From TrEMBL:
<feature type="signal peptide">
    <location>
        <begin position="1"/>
        <end position="21"/>
    </location>
</feature>
<dbReference type="GO" id="GO:0005788">
    <property type="term" value="C:endoplasmic reticulum lumen"/>
</dbReference>
<dbReference type="InterPro" id="IPR006598">
    <property type="entry name" value="CAP10"/>
</dbReference>
<protein>
    <submittedName>
        <fullName>KDEL motif-containing protein 1-like protein</fullName>
    </submittedName>
</protein>
<dbReference type="GO" id="GO:0046527">
    <property type="term" value="F:glucosyltransferase activity"/>
</dbReference>
<comment type="function">
    <text>Protein O-glucosyltransferase. Catalyzes the reaction that attaches glucose through an O-glycosidic linkage to a conserved serine residue found in the consensus sequence C-X-S-X-[PA]-C in epidermal growth factor-like repeats. Regulates Notch signaling by glucosylating Notch in the ER, glucosylation is required for the correct folding and cleavage of Notch.</text>
</comment>
<dbReference type="Pfam" id="PF05686">
    <property type="entry name" value="Glyco_transf_90"/>
</dbReference>
<dbReference type="InterPro" id="IPR051091">
    <property type="entry name" value="O-Glucosyltr/Glycosyltrsf_90"/>
</dbReference>
<keyword id="KW-0732">Signal</keyword>
<feature type="domain" description="Glycosyl transferase CAP10">
    <location>
        <begin position="234"/>
        <end position="492"/>
    </location>
</feature>
Length: 523
């Protein structure tokens, strides 16, 4: 990219002028690399997997990363006490020219802290970061009242415009939680097979819940996020309703009141308070563990080729959870030079397998990015792979839809992605334009034609991911949502009924850092 190139030259000049300066972790541009992210800025902050970025601006390049527990007086004990698993993703062939480093504590703590070293190709130490106190694993309870400040949660971020818009409905004197819960139970609890939701109560940083419906397994995602937050900081006393199903539930049909339901998907017709989806939430909580796909690994992996070397086709795989997906497959059968779309599973439209089948075997998600174009077609609701597609290196197409996730409101067409009409009627002319050049679409002046213009949109989309969709942003959003929502509840004691089950107390975690530390509630 042009600007990037000039920026590099500028930095080279700065580096030249500064030549001879000593290596110092605070003077990052001296060595032509910029290091940022919570796992570097503040290793004491607990994450399931701590992470940071090393961006290159010159020929000086970090090629090796070493992260280990610092050794104290009792060396043998220290070695055992601190186990760290480090992963490095190499994005140097792509637009940000950086490596992504993440490290997970496999032991409860590193008693003497950690030391992070970044080396160049000559094995020269470029930068170093040390902590002076112990660091702890996700499994520990380490309260910090300044957690959200240390997390660098930007309280004024425009990402919260969605949250405040969602809360507006309940920001009035008529809103009453008990009434809403009763309404929720009356309308949805009887239909146990179709709906499931939980009533959570948080009192003195202990978490309780009662769930309704037959399929309540998805409560795990909310439990895990709340537990992770409650073990890091103090949550307000509050109670909330969480929808475990796909469809948003807070509608005002038949004159009923809008209910403050937290959901993973919103729609233009409902009043649910939208949270980051369980999919991205889980990928944050189980990163570098159980889940294989997450924002950082997709962002940083060598997923396919540079944009201009990718196959010039639209690529899509998924289940048959929406008729529009069948239409996409049909278009693909008729226009195989433009589209490679196929279903991996028939469930909803089994009787149409003749026409839209056969189902194809699974394609690894990173292989999606061997193609220039991706499309995110709704499933039952918004397809939650959106953030993962945005972390990739292909140009994203998105049909108009009434369903949205918590961040869609900040996406701009032709800046971050290409907008397609709801019925995919414009898909072919748009693809012809993207693939073959200008003359094919009525919107020829708006749409990017060259590889460079298209790659620039991919770059904007990836910048969006770095700005709004990293693990820290997901944590901040949940925290902010709970705090702001709770401010709308009327004062009064929160009743924990006998039916509610205890989900978390500080004692349910296996290690407690505050117990051992002199400076409680302080990192
Ligand atoms: C990343 O890839 C580049 C080019 O393939 C290589 O030169 C570099 O050593 C790699 N860096 C790391 C940290 O693996
Ligand atoms: C509720 O409305 C008041 C007055 O407009 C506003 O100051 C406050 O920030 C709102 N609270 C939330 C959580 O939206």
């Amino acid at each position: 990219m042009q600007t990037n190139y000039f920026y590099r030259i500028y930095l080279l000049l700065v580096i030249f002028v500064n030549a001879g300066a000593t290596v110092d972790s605070n003077e990052q541009s001296n060595v032509g690399v910029k290091v940022f992210g919570p796992g570097w800025d503040n290793p004491q902050l607990i994450f399931p997997s701590r992470y940071f970025f090393v961006q290159h601006f010159s020929d000086k390049r970090v090629v090796r990363v070493e992260i280990e527990g610092k050794v104290g007086e009792n060396v043998a004990a220290n070695r055992k006490d601190c186990r760290i698993w480090t992963q490095v993703f190499n994005e140097t062939n792509f637009d940000f020219d950086m490596i992504i480093v993440r490290y997970k504590l496999m032991s409860d703590r590193c008693s003497n802290g950690v030391i992070i070293k970044l080396f160049d190709a000559n094995n020269e130490l470029l930068m170093k970061k040390e902590t002076s106190t112990a660091i702890y694993a996700e499994e520990c309870v380490c309260h910090n009242l300044r957690w959200n400040e240390l997390m660098n949660c930007d309280q004024n971020s425009e990402i919260y415009n969605q949250l405040f818009a969602d809360l507006r409905t309940f920001n009035n004197s008529k809103f009453n939680f008990e009434n809403s819960l009763e309404e929720m139970k009356r309308r949805y609890a009887p239909y146990t097979k179709s709906y499931s939701f939980c009533h959570y109560a948080i009192v003195n940083n202990e978490i309780y819940r009662k769930c309704y419906g037959e399929y309540v397994g998805f409560a795990q995602f909310m439990d895990d996020m709340l537990i992770s937050l409650a073990s890091k900081t103090r949550l307000p006393n509050t109670q909330l309703i969480v929808n475990l199903g796909d469809w948003p539930l807070s509608d005002t049909r038949r004159g009923s009141i809008a209910m403050p339901v937290f959901s993973w998907c919103g729609s233009d017709e409902t009043f649910d308070i939208v949270l980051p989806t369980y999919e991205i939430t889980e990928s944050v909580l189980n990163m570098q563990g159980r889940v294989s796909l997450d924002i950082l690994s997709i962002f940083g992996r060598q997923n396919g080729l540079p944009f201009n070397k990718k196959t010039s086709k639209l690529f899509w795989r998924g289940r048959d959870s929406n008729r529009l997906r069948l239409k996409l497959v049909d278009l693909s059968k008729k226009h195989p030079k433009l589209i490679d779309a196929a279903l991996t599973n028939f469930f909803f439209f089994r009787d149409e397998i003749e026409k839209y089948g056969p189902s194809v075997s699974y394609t690894s998600f990173t292989d999606f990015f061997n193609y220039k174009y991706q499309i995110n077609v709704d499933g039952t609701v918004a397809a939650y792979r959106m953030p993962m597609l945005m972390a990739g290196t292909s140009l994203l197409l998105k049909p108009v839809s009434k369903y949205y996730e918590h961040f869609y409101h900040l996406l701009r067409k032709n800046v971050h992605y290409i907008l397609v009409d709801q019925e995919l009627d414009e898909l072919l002319p748009i693809l012809r334009h993207l693939i073959r050049g200008k003359q094919y679409s009525a919107k020829k002046d708006e749409l990017p034609a060259s590889d460079e213009e298209q790659a620039a949109i991919v770059h904007n989309m990836r910048k969006f991911v770095l700005k709004y969709l990293l693990p820290s942003h997901i944590y901040c959003y949940y925290h902010k949502a709970i705090v702001e929502y709770s401010s709308l509840l009327k004062d009064g004691e929160i009743k924990v009924s006998k039916e509610m089950q205890l989900v978390y107390t500080a004692k349910s975690k296996k290690c407690n850092c505050n117990k051992n530390d002199a400076n409680k509630d302080e990192l």
